[in-house]
Amino acid sequence: MAIPEKDFRLVRKKFEDKSERIPDRIRLGNHFVDDFIFEDQEAADIPTGALRVIFNIMSIISSEQFRPEDRPKQLSLFDEEFETENNIFASIKIRNSKISPSGSTKQVVEAYGFLARFKMDWYKSVNSNGKEIKTFGALISTPTYDQRGYTSFLISSYWLKKLMIIPEYNYILYNLVYNIRNNKHIIFAIWLSKLPEGGTMMKLSSLNKKFGLNYKTANDFCFKFLKPARVNFNRYNNLSFNCHYKGDFIFIHPFYTKMNTGSDIPENTEEQSKITRRLYYFSKRYGLKADEMLQFSYQYRTISQTRKLIEKAFSEFIRINRQKGVKSTDFQGVHFLNKMQEFIIQLYKETKMGEILPNGYPVIL
Predict the structure, then answer these.
(1) What distance lies between CA 46 and its chain's CA centroid?
(2) Is 12 domain-assigned?
(3) Per the structure, how many domains does the chain have?
(4) Most buried residue, 23, 216, 233, 258, by most Cβ within 10 Å?
């Protein structure tokens, strides 16, 4: 009898938590956060134990994570190691006490069980040679307890790529998953780390949908969900927030807390002021509303290479409009962002990174 294709697994690399050192923070890539935690803009209800597994995976592979712009050769090596055949995996081993400090076997089993079932499917990616690579599984596969006190499992090349290759990322404190019990507060903290300095404004219905909640009024959302989350963040996180509401609209403004060591806080330099003024110029000249500025502002502020690409795209946008005798201000709001996105994609594809990662261009809307 033929063995189904999904039963063939090739393990190319083994990761193990050999150090007892507890990291201050981990790097969560935005592609992973968007595809795994916030697919279709809605947060998955991931249990705290499963979040601990994810945070410990990030900690173990941290030395292997990289931005492709900084280490293009490393991207080619990943391609050669993990994207030559279907169903290639890496093996990871985590100490059980990292998932349940209280020693609860039930909590460990439930954490791995959730991640072994959640989003189980066939996944496809295309390597640098244009070959389609397929893998089957969830984030983790076949958790086993072959060594006392540890759990081993497999991660497919599809998810490993999103965990290791991080063109855009945010820092999250490692101990959040141990200090905060409410899993939705942890997930909210991950979302908060992606907000621009100016914060955001969202309708009650949108926030309810995003976090799987059902509050009837903005007042209830603020005082029953956001206020307890803020108390936790003020105590345990390096990033907290202020909030208020007007009608059904809720305003959230992130700020760094005193417990921050200083390395995470953007410096209040002339460069930061220049960026703020430039974003203000874009918003006023092209009629961008607060929600339309959210992604654009994030991309512009966070990574200098992305900012240069956006400015280059804007110069091209102005040049083409002048050739056509069209005023650039004829493009307002989303229409302006759509045109800018077209130029960004076009210019990105002309770069070396565009050849290696054809779909890795920044998304501004």
Answers:
(1) 15
(2) yes
(3) 3
(4) 233
Closest to 198 (Cα-Cα) out of 112, 295, 267: 295
Domain co-membership, 143 together with 16: yes
| Distance (Å, whole) CA 189 – CA 178 | 13
CA distance 192 to 10: 37
In tens, the pLDDT along 243-286 reads: 999 999 999 988 888 654 444 444 445 677 788 888 889 999 99
CA 118 to chain centre: 18
Q: Supply the DSSP symbol for 173.
A: E
Assigned domain for 183 exists:
no
Task: Look at residues 43, 42, 11 and name the one whose alpha carbon lies nearest to residue 160.
Answer: 11
Domain containing residue 165:
5-171
Does residue 14 sit in the same domain as residue 121? yes
**Burial of 263 by CB count in 10 Å (0-12 exposed, 13-18 middle, 19+ buried)?**
exposed
Q: Are residues 257 and 280 in the same domain?
A: no
Cβ count near 94 (within 10 Å): 24
pLDDT(229) > 50: yes
pTM value?
A: 0.71
